[in-house]
Design goal:
With 437 residues, the protein is mainly alpha-helical. It has a single domain, classed as Up-down Bundle (Amino acid/polyamine transporter I), CATH 1.20.1740.10. The chain has 17 helices and no strands. Helix 9 packs antiparallel against helix 13. The longest helix is centred in the middle third of the chain and has 46 residues.
Length: 437
């Protein structure tokens, strides 16, 4: 570990804010409409969100243990390249580049467009989403504090408005439109697994703080704490929000709706509550995009520092990877103009869950290699075992129902392996020339 990287400027409040901002984005305001249409029962939707929260908590505990062992920025790339092989780490970084951050940024930005009232007819789809990505990228390129201070303010405002919305919704629940029951389809584990894969995307930001561990103050203490507190807080918020979305309005008015949050708010409190919900969503999606534009480039910078990515993307002055942030913005804008919202949701949930499960599996390798004292894990082996087992089981069931997700993920992994082999061969030739010289 580089000791200089263990001393940083990002405090625990900002670290926790990054976790909250990364998690509360597009997913919670979009996913339950699809899940309700497939599962046919509000209780099943709530069960899926609860299971997703438990799995994410196990993941947060596991990632906290990993960052105690490796307190540098880089996330899955760092953990896997140091534990398994640089090839495995590079593929994880490649997944982050194409899906983990690029796809997730595009998904959140497109969802923001979907929730904007009165989208200008003269603007083509993707215009406002692209503008949001450009603005957040410029802020984070300028300075870490320039990007994080307004982000922390907006996160606090977002949480305050969410609490007010929940308070109003539950207080007026007796006067809300009565739920219309309909025939509930028989339970299908594969359908439930697919819904859980969508939900896993909403929880996927539980590991956000590890990507800036090298810039955190007292990373061994503050990063694991931020992961645990942020994940638990978000799980409570998700359960409360989804109770409003799926229990209070009529089932047929929200099932299958991409804008389930707006549909639920209109049913409960009319246009006034819809305006409040739109404000919450716009704040949530803005901070989500901002957080991911900040976090993703730290992975590519670590890869560049290790010589596996062009040197221009390495960490620059004041630890700001400016070229990597610019690259992240450009790639996100390309995906914004090329993909559809639901397609991104399925692909991202499947791909990111597998990558995270592989990263958590490195805990078992490290414990066997270095011993329990050097790699302590709370309640070991249950958190990593639960996270890996649940992720693989539900991913397998979801892939069985929608095989194209598995094929898309395999293409992403194979392309990353091919790029690594090309890069590694170039590095080897360079080293040989230097030795001869």
């Amino acid at each position: 570990m580089n000791d200089s990287e263990s001393q940083g400027t990002i405090g625990p409040a900002t670290l926790t804010g990054l976790v909250v901002a990364s998690m509360i984005g597009a997913g919670v305001f979009v996913t339950s409409g699809y899940a309700l249409a497939d599962l046919g029962s509000p209780n099943r939707v709530m069960l899926a969100w609860l299971i997703g929260g438990i799995i994410a908590t196990c993941g947060a505990i596991s990632y906290g243990a990993l960052v105690k062992r490796m307190t540098m920025s880089g996330g899955e790339y760092l953990f896997l390249s140091r534990t398994f092989h640089p090839l495995v780490g590079f593929v994880a970084g490649w997944v982050s580049l194409l899906a983990g951050f690029t796809g997730a940024i595009a998904f959140a930005a497109l969802a923001l467009e979907a929730y904007l009232p009165g989208y200008p007819a003269f603007l083509p789809r993707g215009s406002i989403a692209s503008i949001l990505v450009i603005v957040t990228a410029v802020l984070h390129i300028k300075n870490v504090r320039v990007g994080t201070i307004p982000q922390n303010v907006v996160i606090s405002l977002k949480l305050s408005v969410i609490v007010l919305f929940l308070g109003y919704a539950f207080c007026t629940a007796p006067q809300a439109t009565e739920v219309v029951t309909s025939a509930i389809p028989s339970f299908s584990i594969s359908v439930f697994a697919t819904s859980l894969m969508w939900i896993s995307l909403s929880y996927s930001g539980f590991n956000a703080a590890v990507y800036v561990a090298g810039e955190a103050r007292n990373a061994k203490r503050n990063v694991p704490m931020a992961l645990a507190i942020g994940t638990f807080l978000v799980m409570l918020i998700y359960l409360a929000l989804n109770a409003v979305f799926v229990y209070l309005p009529p089932l047929e008015s929200v099932a299958g709706r991409e804008d389930i949050a707006v549909a639920a708010a209109e049913s409960i409190g009319g246009k006034g509550l819809v305006a409040v919900v739109r404000t919450v969503i716009l704040l949530a999606l803005t901070t989500s995009v901002s957080a991911m534009v900040m976090l993703g480039p730290r992975v590519y910078a670590r890869m560049a520092n290790d010589g596996l990515f062009p040197k221009i993307f390495s960490t620059g002055d004041k630890r700001i990877p400016r070229a990597a942030i610019a690259l992240q913005g450009v790639l996100a804008i390309i995906v914004i103009w090329a993909a559809m919202l639901k397609e991104l949701l399925s692909y991202l949930g499947f791909t990111l869950s597998l990558c995270s499960a592989l990263a958590v599996s490195s805990l078992f390798i490290l414990r066997r290699r270095e011993g329990a004292e050097k790699v302590p894990v709370w309640a070991y082996p249950f958190p990593p075992a639960i996270y890996i087992g649940a992720t693989l089981v539900f991913a397998g069931l979801a892939a069985r129902r929608n095989p194209w997700e598995m094929f898309a993920t395999l293409i992403t992994i194979l392309s990353g392996a091919i790029v690594y082999l090309i890069v590694a061969r170039r590095i080897k030739r360079t080293m040989l020339r230097d030795d001869v010289g």
